Amino acid sequence: MASHDNAKAVAESYVDVLIVGAGPAGVMCANALVHAGVTVRIVDKRLEGISAGQADGLQPRTLEILQSYGLADQLFNEGAHVHRVANYEPTPDGGLKRIRLSAASTAPNARWTFGVGMSQGRVEEIFLASMQKKGLAVERATVPTSLKMSGQADGLEDPGSYVNTVVLQKVGGHNATEVVHAKFVLGSDGAHSWVRKALGIGAEGTMTNSVWGVVDLLPDTDMPDIRNLTYVHSSEGTLFTIPRERDLVRLYVPQANDSEVIDPATGRADKNRSSAEKVLAQARKLIYPYRMEVKDNQIDWWTIYIVGQRVADRYSVHDRALIAGDACHTHSPKAGQGMNAALGDSHNLAWKLAYVLKGWAKMLLLRTYESERQKFARDLIEFDKQWSKLFMANSLSSEDRDDASKKLFIEMMNKFSGFTSGIGIRYSPSTIVNPQYQTSASNLIVGERMIPQMFICAADGRPVEIHDMLPADSRFKLLVFGGDIAVPGDLERLREATSATERPESFLSRYGRAGAVFDVLYFSSGKQANITYADFPQFYGTHWKKAFLDDVELSGRFGGGGYEKYGIDPHVGAMVIIRPDGYVGMVAPLSLHGVEDITTNFDGFLL
Amino acid sequence: MASHDNAKAVAESYVDVLIVGAGPAGVMCANALVHAGVTVRIVDKRLEGISAGQADGLQPRTLEILQSYGLADQLFNEGAHVHRVANYEPTPDGGLKRIRLSAASTAPNARWTFGVGMSQGRVEEIFLASMQKKGLAVERATVPTSLKMSGQADGLEDPGSYVNTVVLQKVGGHNATEVVHAKFVLGSDGAHSWVRKALGIGAEGTMTNSVWGVVDLLPDTDMPDIRNLTYVHSSEGTLFTIPRERDLVRLYVPQANDSEVIDPATGRADKNRSSAEKVLAQARKLIYPYRMEVKDNQIDWWTIYIVGQRVADRYSVHDRALIAGDACHTHSPKAGQGMNAALGDSHNLAWKLAYVLKGWAKMLLLRTYESERQKFARDLIEFDKQWSKLFMANSLSSEDRDDASKKLFIEMMNKFSGFTSGIGIRYSPSTIVNPQYQTSASNLIVGERMIPQMFICAADGRPVEIHDMLPADSRFKLLVFGGDIAVPGDLERLREATSATERPESFLSRYGRAGAVFDVLYFSSGKQANITYADFPQFYGTHWKKAFLDDVELSGRFGGGGYEKYGIDPHVGAMVIIRPDGYVGMVAPLSLHGVEDITTNFDGFLL
């Protein structure tokens, strides 16, 4: 890289992407980019990673996402599995009674029907270990002190130009600075994001009057549902509890609006005005007559805060300096979304950045980051408001509630579960979400994540979860549902569509880049008794592991019914495009026409 | 340790167990012992671990065993999963036709309904890595040159005495020797076991006239079932193929009895009289009209050998020097048992050695190693003989076979699958296999391995496979099936049995050693809607993860029907003793009487 004529020697460097902030959004993005072959640096103001507290829960969709990076095993092994929600209501004699036990996640097609309780610090460590394998580590005790975006309009349109100039400084006594020239900058530096402010991005919304105390502890309790998610409405108020790794539990204890914990001068919650013991004492009152003591004096963490419900006006400046995670949105803890929304942001952004940087996609691809994720954040906050209101105001069994209100609460509980599982997220139509042929696979909703299903590997009869064939490896997946290849008509249609993809003008030929951009998988509706792997047309010289049957495995335990589940007629077939992030980008008829329209769609954003 | 008056200074050392031979049986035993806290050394004559060839398949029960040591993940990730068996027969026009596709494992209650194809060397590496975590490595290029057992009868009865004196020597130029004094010696040094010979143990049986050529290769073939286990009866003869890791395939090609590969002088197979190319040429004839070429010139390994069907007369001398694996038994490859039987031997032996060495069990416990494993080996060879005869002589579709013979073949195929899955192994009644109350859990056959089943954790609603609660951690497991604790009568019976176990004279008090010998798990037949974790009697102050319900998980995907599957009447209940190796040792009524009889049983072999 060229050195510049500076009066003073200043360290100067160049990087594709500079990430500011090594929380969940930051390490998620850094890990995804470095594995996609992008040059990344990631800095964080803290001297060390956090060891306790902060965000604490991973929802079913987030588990699927982490699995797609090969990073879910440790979560499953170490985290608390949250399968159930228990609702408690007061009894006339001053006690508490469990009045409802229900599934924590009701999303019908989640691969995992539970959430995982695990502290943010441990989740970050999983990403750090994965980044480390590619030689990337967080540069700690490092903060940006200046961020400038140069370049004319055409420079901004060239992803290869270093339009961002960031000055980094070490925290502490030294005044050592470094000037980093970055093609892209990502601000994943939290609710009080320095990057967001430096970019002049505002955040819509307000601080609520919802004040919370939080304690992480090792409980000694006779509360029967302490290993479940609980909502306790007692006569003294409301609290909720979430199980965590290592037998820990987190207590969320609402504080009165006029609470003494608010500093009247600033209007902000002041930790000095409370203590773990005070929050715990409040919790004890709410959970009475159950005991809530601390085992082995183990209080891992505590805090107190006012919930802000805000969404950033924009998610980037010119798509060259972007923000993600809490820098974009904050909301109440009851939705259990903080870390999940942050990870979802970066998962959405990383492959787009990689495509643009590699010269595979047009800059306009990055526009979809904001359009997809900002809408989600707004929906989330709208939901959070409704839910918070109901949550605080109502009690399921209280005599003064009418039936309609009770019914609404239950409905909201279910909606809550579906919504916050992350499974139901649907991205709106855009250049990368094309629902024009939705009927070709009527249940694979374009814009939603792929529905999990077991298929049988045609070559060896092994049952394989389709999600495991859709890793976050930066590739689009073309799923060819060719019907029953033992049926002549079906095979003919498959041949037609396949030979169309082999033409030089097809998307596969034009944008495939020798397998770097597309992976192709076949799914026949035929049965293993009739079809062998050798019966599949070897059009692309594909590996034997990529041809599947929609059949039941010989033990009878797995598979079958995939075409029906997906709403694909086996005698018509379909082609399904899965985005690198696992979302359905397009479905199309299995025909020359379908291939042409898929090609037109990719023409819109690939190079 | 005392040093001896030697004329010459000779290195001298002491160890609890000296293992000779680092094949599957040796590393399995070494790993189990070192994790149980026993001092072990393991030596092997080879300079390096093997990298290719040798044994190649792990059966469903072996997968369960490896899982119980926490060592199965790598197998599942790397190995070929063998779900299916395909039978081919000749067609009148000189071709081949698949006439049957069936499940590779038909054991109805296997946790995994497939085998794993993976080379012996990779399997050994898994154990080596696990041993390494405890600081144990194989001492290579080291052989015993002398083995003497001293000690009077009473010395032999004292597991603490170093009755074995072994001289070890480094292979190669040096003449350095070491004298090792070992309490126990294990010879896991293969079919031509030096230890077996040094102990003067004979091997019953004979060499067969069954001669095999074997090639491991990366195939380039249009054989449709190459990723399945195949038995190909062609007009030219018979061969079978087994898929392996890394897309490899092994071909087993029988050689004519009067084959030129036999050295007439010795009567043994002579590798110099054949070659990989020769065996491959034979295979090509048998598999015609399918092609069988080698991709990338990748022939990993090949060999040629005569099958010996032999079982050692004894498995030990005075239970102080023992043998395991191929040193005890050899048989044909078709049963796919070599590595599995070897691993099974050591799995059976290791916990018994640990108990005796720790002073927890009487020496007579070790007697059951031979009685259990020798009988298994004899059954295996008897089966192998029958099967080999049928396999070589018969063809399913040939015109000259009568229906009875065809039916027998199919029956044998099924028996084969059930038998060689390892799931059906039943150890005979002994001091550690007590079927006196079999009716208390009529389907949990005493002497067989525990039947897998999902139960629901009472505290958090998580579905848990019972096998995962029965790790190979050297502990017996007491499973208390207490019926529905919401039903007063059931709860009373549970209380009675539980208070009986709390008496000082009970097995739990007498032999429990503060949790080192017994782990206790509760299984209620009640439903999660009615029962919370807090309803379980906290008799033993057990952890919340150890109380279960026989119920369906809230998503409806897992669990339920466990009592029925196990043949336990919920209104009667049962206590089940699982041995440290996962086999059912005893079932008993849930009563004072039951506890007394379990105690009597443990009196028989624990100290």
TrEMBL record, chains A, B:
Record Gene3D superfamilies: 3.40.30.20, D-Amino Acid Oxidase, subunit A, domain 2, FAD/NAD(P)-binding domain
Annotated keywords: FAD, Flavoprotein, Oxidoreductase
Record flagged with keyword NAD: no
CDD domains (UniProt xref): PHOX_C
Residue ranges constituting the Phenol hydroxylase-like C-terminal dimerisation domain according to the UniProt record: 425-606
GO MF, one example: FAD binding
Xref: InterPro entries: FAD-bd (IPR002938), FAD/NAD-bd_sf (IPR036188), Phe_hydrox_C_dim_dom (IPR012941), PHOX_C_sf (IPR038220), RIFMO-like (IPR050641), Thioredoxin-like_sf (IPR036249)
Occurrences of domain FAD-binding (ranges): 15-383
Domain of life where this protein originates: Eukaryota
Family: Belongs to the PheA/TfdB FAD monooxygenase family.
Protein name: FAD-binding domain-containing protein
